[in-house]
Amino acid sequence: MASSQSGKGLAVVTGASTGIGYELAKCAAQDGYDLVIAADEERINLAAANLEEFGTTVDAVEADLSTLEGVDRLVERITASGRSVDLLMANAGRGLGKGFLDQDFGAARMVVDTNITGTIYLIHAIGNQMRSRGQGRILLTGSIAGFMPGSYQAVYNGTKAFINSFSFALREELKESGVTVSCLMPGATETEFFKRADLMDTAIGQAEKDDAGDVARIGYDAMMDGEGDVVSGWKNKLQAAVANVTPASMLAHQHSKMAEPGSGNK
């Protein structure tokens, strides 16, 4: 990786080939940061080429971030650059629709390994480096899905509940360290998530969604301001507030209406 053209710093973004991750990387590039971006698909290289148009240096890493080996590959690439990470945006994530017992278990485990294991393994590695320097900013992509039991998305919502909780705990642990931790909690966003999760026949898959660029900007600004969490969009803020005072059984029933296979045709 070449030396910084801007001198502003280095930002690392996972899940950056498309969607919110790409838009987060764009925010950093527009702000003058050099980038290391990662995803588990070849399109990460196209994303890098597009981001270089902002005049910043971009290093693309194609790696399976559901595995410790894939995360190690990313960390090794960062280390090889000889630079410290100023911004870490841990955005990589997977979804999965349909009833839990009808899902392929390997696919369900990959959701857990990507959304939780790979994410916290990366944060453990880079977070320790940040703490040693006494500075750095971390943004995790959680979700308002983490506030409710996700019928027909049970594993996914469970992983996001973990990320939401983990971010607050880590923020408290690092509050005197010079390292800030923020959590972006979007609602349904216009990305390839729903197609990849096989949710296109559901009500939530067919519903109008938030713009990925708007969601990313809200999360990026919250991270730069050192905010602990941000829910993007007033409808999502309302949904999150209601979820906090609604019985879990009722939330699970409501979620089934959105995510049950075929619900988009009812």
From TrEMBL:
It holds the Pfam family adh_short. It comes from the Bacteria. One of its GO terms (molecular function) is oxidoreductase activity. Gene3D superfamilies: NAD(P)-binding Rossmann-like Domain (3.40.50.720). PROSITE patterns: ADH_SHORT. Signal peptide: none annotated. The keyword DNA-binding does not apply. The keyword Oxidoreductase applies. Keywords: Oxidoreductase. Belongs to the short-chain dehydrogenases/reductases (SDR) family. This is SDR family NAD(P)-dependent oxidoreductase. It comes from Rhizobium redzepovicii.
